[in-house]
């Protein structure tokens, strides 16, 4: 067995390791058991992931004498709501848990977010471990302690910062992902290059075809680099009072698109973020910060791999720039009425701005709406 790479997210007494490698789920007990306060866990998964990965996980735990019980939620973003949270927490309590019981989130971003939030509020906080099985969850949502659910008012508006005790990112799990899911997660990988690592963006340009074909080395490297970048940013600004907002590159635009389309299969989160990042660079170009050549390079890369760069196939004549802006103004990142945008002076030169003129945002959106 190849040893995983180990990263540490440094948050004082809440620090934890992020292990990236192959065969981690089948060997999970080796990494989990030193963290348990009692030989018992409750695994939360969904009906897509559980048929493939629950048994390898429970076999490993059984062999180490760790008792496990599983709760399986319906797969999909629709599960990230109060009703499912109520069901989940009731089932967890129904299993007769104690403060020392640990939850294990086995699944993609939805399972990680709702399980983390359930851990944060059950018995005023119990331990949880992330075993992310989607690329998006491995490179972004499982790391950094953002947990929560959606409401009719918007995405992730109810939640808590609550850190896991361990993240086990098993790149074998990515081999069973549909290509569309892999590609959507890949948008969050490229994001780290666009934020502050132009060499990593160049690596993405050269290695995306292998990565998207499931090459284990390319996937392992991309997950490791992404988690390293995220761990560095989160350890410096856990509660997003400053630089953590950089991780929201493309999200102000992207969340507005998701709110307009409706959460579900029509537009996956990563796809929305891909379009949102192109829009963020277009906006940066409009206000004279970034060359059109840089925007063109990003568009060319996204088009080469098959990521959406426009609203083609999404928007219809009922869409308007004003409506998209009104979605932006409901985002939780609005502060004293001002909307945060991540702008860029070029690839790898992103920064947070709250001084963007909404007239420029409106023109950027209108141009995108004209172009589809
Ligand atoms: N996904 C952005 C963050 O964790 O801050």
Strands, helices and their partners?
Layout: E1 5-9, E2 16-21, H1 28-32, E3 40-46, H2 50-63, E4 67-73, H3 82-94, E5 102-107, H4 109-121, E6 128-132, H5 135-141, E7 146-151, E8 154-161, E9 166-170, H6 179-196, H7 198-212, H8 216-236, H9 251-261, H10 269-286, H11 292-305, H12 321-328, E10 341-344, E11 350-353, H13 358-371
Parallel strand pairs: 2-9, 3-4, 3-5, 5-6
Antiparallel strand pairs: 1-2, 7-8, 10-11
Helix pairs in contact: 5-6, 5-8, 6-7, 6-10, 7-8, 9-10, 9-12, 10-11, 10-13, 12-13
The protein binds glycine (GLY).
Q: How does this structure look, described?
A:
With 372 residues, the chain is of the alpha/beta class. It has 2 domains: 5-176, Rossmann fold; 179-371, Dehydroquinate synthase-like - alpha domain (Dehydroquinate synthase-like, alpha domain), CATH 1.20.1090. The protein is built from 13 helices and 11 strands. Strands 4-3-5-6 form a 4-stranded parallel beta sheet, sandwiched between helices. A hairpin with a 6-residue loop joins strand 1 (5-9) and strand 2 (16-21). Helix 5 packs parallel to helix 8 (216-236). The mean pLDDT is 95. Bound molecules: glycine. Glycine (GLY) binds next to loops.
Q: Care to give the gist of this entry?
A:
The protein is 46% helix and 17% strand. The protein is an alpha/beta fold and 372 residues long.
Distinctive features:
372 residues, Rossmann fold, globular, alpha/beta, single chain, three-stranded mixed β-sheet, 2 domains, 46% helix, 17% strand, binds glycine, 11 strands, four-stranded parallel β-sheet, Dehydroquinate synthase-like, alpha domain, 13 helices
């Amino acid at each position: 067995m190849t040893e995983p790479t180990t990263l540490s997210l440094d948050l004082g007494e809440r620090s934890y390791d992020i292990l990236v490698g192959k065969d981690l789920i089948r060997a999970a007990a080796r990494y989990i058991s030193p963290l348990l306060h009692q030989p018992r866990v409750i695994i939360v998964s969904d009906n897509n992931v559980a048929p493939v990965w629950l048994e390898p996980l429970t076999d490993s735990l059984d062999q180490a004498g760790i008792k496990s019980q599983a709760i399986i939620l319906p797969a999909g973003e629709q599960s990230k709501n109060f009703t499912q949270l109520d069901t989940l927490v009731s089932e967890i309590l129904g299993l007769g848990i104690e403060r020392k019981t640990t939850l294990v989130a086995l699944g993609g971003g939805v399972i990680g977010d709702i399980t983390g939030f359930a851990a944060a509020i059950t018995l005023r906080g119990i331990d949880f471990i992330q075993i992310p099985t989607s690329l998006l969850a491995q490179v972004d949502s499982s790391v950094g302690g953002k947990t929560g659910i959606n409401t009719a008012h918007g995405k992730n508006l109810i939640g808590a910062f609550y850190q896991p005790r361990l993240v086990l990112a098993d790149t074998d799990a990515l081999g069973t992902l549909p290509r569309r899911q892999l590609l959507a997660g890949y948008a969050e990988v490229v994001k780290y290059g666009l934020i502050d690592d132009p060499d990593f963006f160049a690596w993405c340009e050269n290695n995306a075809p292998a990565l998207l074909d499931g090459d284990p080395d390319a996937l392992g490297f991309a997950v490791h680099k992404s988690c390293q970048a995220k761990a560095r940013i989160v350890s410096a600004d856990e509660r997003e009072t400053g630089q953590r907002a950089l991780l929201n590159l493309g999200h102000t635009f992207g969340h507005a698109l998701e709110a307009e389309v409706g959460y579900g299969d029509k537009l996956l989160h990563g796809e929305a973020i891909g379009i949102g990042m192109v829009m963020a660079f277009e906006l940066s170009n409009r206000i004279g910060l970034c060359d059109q050549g840089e925007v063109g390079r990003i568009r060319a890369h996204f088009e080469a791999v098959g990521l959406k760069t426009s609203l083609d196939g999404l928007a219809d004549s009922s869409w308007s720039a004003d409506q998209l802006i009104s979605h932006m103004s409901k985002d939780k990142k609005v502060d004293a009425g001002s909307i945060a945008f991540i702008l860029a002076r070029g690839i790898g030169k992103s920064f947070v701005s709250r001084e963007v003129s909404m007239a420029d945002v409106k023109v950027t959106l209108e141009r995108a709406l004209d172009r589809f």
